[in-house]
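TA notes. Do not distribute before section.
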Amino acid sequence: MHKEGYYSSGEFAKKANVTVRTIRYYDKQNILKPSYVTDTGVRFYTDSDFTRLQQILLLKYLGFSLDDIKGMTIGDSDYNILKNSLHLQLKLIQDKMAQMQLVKNAIEDTIKTIDKDNTIDWSSMLSLIHLTNMESSLKTQYQNAGNISARINLHAMYSVNKQGWFKWIYEQGNIASHTEVLELGCGDGRLWVDNIDSVMSQNIKPHITVSDISEGMVNDARRNITEVYEKCVKNPENIVNSNNIFEYDVADCQNMSYNDASYDCVIANHVLFYCEDIDKACQEIVRVLKPGGVFVCATYGSRHMQEISQLVKEFDKRIVLAADNLYDKFGLDTGDKQLKKYFTSVNIRRYDDCLKVDKAEPLVEYILSCHGNQNQYLLDRYSDFKAFIQKKLRKTLTITKDAGLFYCVKE
């Protein structure tokens, strides 16, 4: 019997302009499962299944393997998740276009060299190989951008403290008082996006180096900061170009190329616990800070978001949202001891906040963005998990936030 609002495999394939064989293959590979299967095995799809199919076809077009795609897509017609997904796909396309332009230029230069010298420049050929073998890095950029977006969105939508985390960091770190600023682990540039008005109102325009170990994150930060800067500038003729304020760099905080005593202020928002060698990172930070310079170092404690871990454990006790407890490596409860080895003054400042969540989609998106094994157990059971979360949220869920920063001063 044909259910209303459902498409048979043939109807679904025809509507999407793909073959039935393709739909069946994606089903077999557990990449695109039907929304409904009858007792006799007849498969039916819904409009929401087109969301995932669109993602699959785009990523396949960009050169990703089906194994990659399985971990990069999720089918959901909720406008929030769909909008975020489309934004990420747009950035992925932009990065791919930039990459293809580099490949085009490299090919043209190589042809010119051959025509001019009648020889092959093997170093140019090696560069071409590197340029045309970047899909894995693009995949990482896509996933990182999606994960950061999901985590920030949950906090932005449901935080009780309306000042906002990034405005609080800017205020508590007294960042506006500094003119030479380095941010480590910039992510998508949200610190500067949220505080662009404050940056623009400084009498002496600062020089801000926005850095991250991920080139994809640096590209996202550049796009986001440039966009909000241009909206903020009301009279472009009377104001300096954004590039005169913001500089972008791919950098590892454990091994930086910046000169000694270069910065008044260094910022690391949820960064140090990712470092393999925290002591080395601290040594580098002290080195690039001027005497009297400030290190603003944000992290979280053991109670942070604990209700979410309890929630997923109730659904499937095998799920671990973080392979390591990062707060054990560098957290609010232990970080001051590590920092006092390098800074004469270390003060802790806690952010007073919690989340009041009443909708499933942003919470599910957040959970899927975590660094643990959750996707292994949730992607194939997405509908069941979403229904489980929706049932739990019949009553608003309060989620603990245990976050803050260390304000450190170099001697």
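Switch to the second chain here.
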Amino acid sequence: LGLTKAIPLVLAGEDVVIGAQTGSGKTLAYLLPILQNLLREKPPNLGKESRMPRAVVMLPNKELCEQVK
């Protein structure tokens, strides 16, 4: 999926898989829409539900996890 096509899908809450060259902006293509959606949502309750994940990002290796972090 191309980067420009991925952003509206992530904003709509769809699951996406992005493949592109290193340094092409893949991380921003999925993280910025996720952050935007999280900021729009009302804050979670302080009860049990507040501990549930609001977004999941899966990465293939530790090095990439560190970069995204």
